[in-house]
Design a protein that fits this description.
The structure is a single chain. Helix 6 packs across helix 9, helix 9 runs antiparallel to helix 12 and helix 15 packs antiparallel against helix 16. The protein is globular. The strands form three sheets. Strands 3, 4, 5, 6, 7, 10 and 11 form a seven-stranded mixed β-sheet that branches. It has a two-stranded antiparallel sheet with strand order 1-2. A two-stranded antiparallel sheet has the order 8-9. 56% of the residues lie in helices and 11% in strands. The protein contains 19 helices and eleven strands.
Length: 606
């Protein structure tokens, strides 16, 4: 059975040489204990847990899946034991506030943990991952009593959390939510309705599950303006914050899915369940965006994770599997054929996976620094600082989620292709990675929804192009610093061209949309993918600069490591970045070629 090895060398290169996390952590109040030695120890211990505990459960969990009996869900064999080890290690509270039993480390430490866990076993990682979003929502919007009741047991991992948005009649369009919340004389609410596609909706890993639920109050305004947010526990907490009576919320069925079968995806029925309002009335969607943005960044990891895992397994296979002779001559003369690794087209697939995994990881780690500042602003009550970094992160969130999950799917399928027919066979694990990864472009908003959020809301409506101008200014300032180094000049020049083009494309779409509103929708996907390729180009240029500096001044890795970084940057710029120009051309295409065929004429059947 294939195994996962945490890419600690690449992670430490990004943390120390590319983004200077030691300096970053030193600037944070929560970073006092995030010293280089402590960070290294945490990474090493988390890697050991993921490699030894989670990775071995990846394929067996897929084979067994979850089971539902009498409204109770049982996770696959070994999951409960692994979760207990997770709790004993204090992993759930790594970045949680100390006042609620957490370790108080920066939020980015949680992302580093989540990346390794998600790559080793995405299905398992979803259980504690959903809890983190619920904890953040309660921390930011809950009352003091709600924080005291829920955050400590959730931080300790004794209780879990979910987000309950989607209903049978509505997915992304939450204005159609029908779940109702009737106020009671004691200040509670009776929540009634059905939610579908609820990840971790029920399981046997924790003693309680805390559902964060969107519902409507009586006489609430129609649409999204009339949605409120509620805490609905599986078991109503006692006054001593213990587990009380069973609430009227139950798993009605488990979804039969293409992948992530060890993750319980539930239909949840609320039948007059006791709930507690969190945040202001009719502002539930605004509060839920805390949860959704957390989840979207987490989902972006499922672009990087499968690219890394599929690459690791495909690389090992390509080194061992022999087929034909290399066109440039025998490479393994003592064998009947050469290893796949010697064939240029196999190298194309492997390097594409490598560039996606390492470029995507850099994108995540860059965004994680913004998240650290945003969380610190919220924690300190500094609304101005929190809003500043929330806006910066908000621009990147749809790019991270949409672009990286699309490329994660590509990388997973390339891994299958390297294996050939064996990639289609279950025992090798490659088809499972592809199945598991497919959901990533769908949940927390499909790629199309992310694209509309980026172009329609973040760029055109909210900032009138300002978000692009601000981000491209950052890229351009970086590029100008490296124009005089002959080794880095090609990267810098290309980035300067792309920043100018990105702003021009934004303006052209803005002007076109004044005459044709469909332009926003028709251009949005290509705009997102173009934005992603340029952002990843920026990250590869930063890695090239860091690798060059380490070669000149010395670093903790070998020369081969740094030269490989430079070679992979070359590959990205020459082989993958040209895709951006196809997206640039397509996004400027008229919406007419999409809309001119009537719905009735889309198909002609007998």
């Amino acid at each position: 059975m294939p195994v996962y090895k945490a890419p600690l060398r690449d992670m430490k290169f990004l943390l120390n040489d590319v983004f200077d996390y030691p300096k970053h952590y030193a600037s944070l109040a929560s970073g006092e204990n995030a010293t280089p030695d402590i960070v290294d120890a945490i990474l090493s211990e988390c890697a050991r847990f993921c490699e030894e505990q989670l990775s071995p459960l990846y394929q067996p969990g897929d084979e067994e899946g979850c089971t539902l009996k009498d409204g109770e869900v049982t996770t696959p064999k070994g999951y409960k034991e692994a979760y207990n080890q997770y709790v004993m290690g204090g992993w759930q509270g790594l970045s949680a506030p100390e006042e609620f039993g957490g370790q108080g480390l920066p939020a980015s430490m949680g992302l580093l943990k989540q990346e390794m866990m998600g790559t080793a076993n995405w299905s398992f990682s979803m259980y504690p991952g959903l809890s983190m979003g619920a904890m953040n929502t309660i921390f930011l919007h809950g009352t003091d009593d709600q924080k005291d009741t829920y955050l400590t047991p959730m931080t300790e991992g004794r209780w879990a959390g979910t987000m309950c948005l989607t209903e049978p009649q509505c997915g992304t369009d939450l204005g159609q939510v029908k779940t109702k919340a009737e106020p009671q004389t004691d200040g509670t609410y009776k929540v009634t309705g059905t939610k579908i596609f609820i990840s971790s909706g029920d399981h046997d890993l924790t003693e309680n599950i805390i559902h964060i639920v969107l519902a409507r109050l009586p006489n609430a305004p129609k649409g999204t303006r009339g949605i409120s947010l509620f805490i609905v526990p599986k078991f109503v907490p006692t006054a001593e914050v213990g587990v009380g009576e069973r609430n009227a919320v139950v798993c009605g069925s488990l979804e039969k899915k293409m992948g992530i079968k060890a993750s319980a995806t539930c239909v949840m029925n609320f039948d007059g369940a006791t709930g507690y309002l969190i945040g202001p009335e009719n502002e539930g969607l605004e509060c839920m965006f805390t949860f959704m943005n957390t989840a979207r960044i987490g989902t972006a990891i499922q672009g990087v994770g499968p690219a890394e895992l599929s690459y690791q397994w495909a690389l090992d296979y390509a080194k061992e599997r022999r087929s034909m002779r290399a066109l440039s001559g025998k490479k393994d003369p003592d064998y009947v054929a050469d290893s796949l690794i010697h064939h240029a087209d196999v190298r194309r697939m492997l390097l594409t996976q490598k560039a996606i995994a390492e470029g995507g990881r850099a994108m995540l780690y860059d965004a994680a620094r913004l998240a650290d500042h945003m969380v610190e602003g919220y924690s300190a009550g500094d609304e101005k600082k929190a809003a500043k970094y929330d806006d910066k992160l908000g621009f990147l969130t749809p790019i991270l989620k949409g672009f990286l999950t699309e490329l994660g799917n590509e990388a997973a399928n390339l891994g299958m292709q390297v294996f050939g027919g064996h990639g289609y066979i279950r025992e090798h694990g490659m088809e499972q990675i592809a199945r598991d990864t497919r959901i990533a472009t769908l949940y927390e908003g499909t790629t199309g929804i992310q694209a509309l959020d980026l172009l329609g809301r973040k760029v055109l409506l909210t900032t009138k192009g300002g978000a692009v101008r601000d981000f491209t200014a950052r890229i351009a300032n970086f590029a100008r610093k490296h124009l005089t180094d002959s080794r880095l000049r090609p990267f810098a020049l290309e980035l300067l061209k792309l920043t100018a083009q990105w702003n021009l494309l934004t303006m052209r779409i803005m002007f076109a949309a004044r005459k044709d509103r469909d332009v926003v929708s028709s251009a949005s996907y290509d705009f997102l993918m173009y934005s992603g390729y340029v952002t990843m180009a920026y990250m590869w240029a930063r890695q090239a600069v860091a690798a060059t500096n380490c070669l000149d001044k010395g670093g903790n890795e070998s020369e081969a490591f740094y030269n490989t970084k430079l070679a992979t940057a070359d590959f990205y710029y020459e082989r993958l970045l040209p895709r951006a120009q196809a997206h640039a051309s397509s996004m400027l295409s008229s919406s007419k070629n999409l809309m001119q065929i009537s719905a009735d004429d889309m198909a002609f059947t007998g």
